[in-house]
C-alpha cells in the first residue's frame, strides 16, 4: 500500500462532507479535524511501515524453519559403496513338525460265541 499524503485524508473527509451538504470553513472545527486527520495519517503510514518490516522478518524466520524441517526430514544420503544384497538366500526352514496325535480307536467286532 502506498503511504498517504499528509492532507489526503482531510481532503477526502472534506469532500465527503461537502457531498452530504456540510462545508468545512476555516475555523476551530476545521482546524481540529485537519489536525486529527494529520495524526491519523501519520499513524497509518507508521503502521504500514511496521507491518512491512514485520512481514519481512516473519518471512525470514519461516524460511529458516522450513530449512530446519527439510534437514530433519530429508532422506539420509547413501554411502559411497551401496550395500549389495546376496544373490543366494538362506534356505527356508521347514515348518515345525505338527504334534502327533493318536489315531482315533475304532471298535473291532468282538469274536464271540456264535449260537
Q: Would you write up a description of this structure?
A:
The chain is mainly alpha-helical and 115 residues long. The chain has a domain at 8-73. Helix content is 50%, strand content 0%. The chain has helices at 8-19, 28-73. The longest helix is centred in the middle third of the chain and has 46 residues, at 28-73.
Low-confidence stretches: none
Measured distance between first and last alpha carbons? 124 Å
Q: Please identify the structural class as seen in this structure.
A: mainly alpha
Oligomerization state = single chain
What level of helicity do the residues show? 40-55%
Q: Strand percentage, roughly?
A: under 5%
Sheet with most strands: none
Q: How do the SSEs run, as a string of H and E?
A: HH
Global mean pLDDT: 83
| SS field, number of helical segments | 2
Radius of gyration: 46 Å
| Morphology | elongated
Number of β-strand runs: 0
Descriptive terms for the model:
mainly alpha; 2 helices; 50% helix; single chain
Short description:
With 115 residues, the protein is mostly helical. The protein has helices spanning 8-19, 28-73. The protein is elongated, with a radius of gyration of 46 Å.
Question: Any chance you could write out the topology, listing elements then pairs?
Answer:
Elements lengths: L7 H12 L8 H46 L42
Amino acid at each position: 500500500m502506498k503511504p498517504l499524503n499528509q492532507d489526503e485524508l482531510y481532503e477526502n473527509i472534506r469532500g465527503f462532507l461537502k457531498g452530504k451538504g456540510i462545508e468545512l470553513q476555516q475555523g476551530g472545527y476545521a482546524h481540529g479535524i485537519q489536525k486529527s486527520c494529520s495524526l491519523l495519517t501519520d499513524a497509518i503510514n507508521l503502521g504500514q511501515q511496521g507491518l512491512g518490516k514485520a512481514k519481512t522478518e516473519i518471512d525470514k524466520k519461516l524460511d529458516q524453519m522450513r530449512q530446519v524441517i527439510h534437514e530433519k526430514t530429508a532422506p539420509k544420503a547413501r554411502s559411497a559403496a551401496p550395500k549389495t544384497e546376496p544373490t543366494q538366500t538362506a534356505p527356508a526352514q521347514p515348518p515345525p513338525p505338527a504334534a502327533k496325535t493318536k489315531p482315533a480307536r475304532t471298535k473291532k467286532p468282538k469274536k464271540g460265541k456264535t449260537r
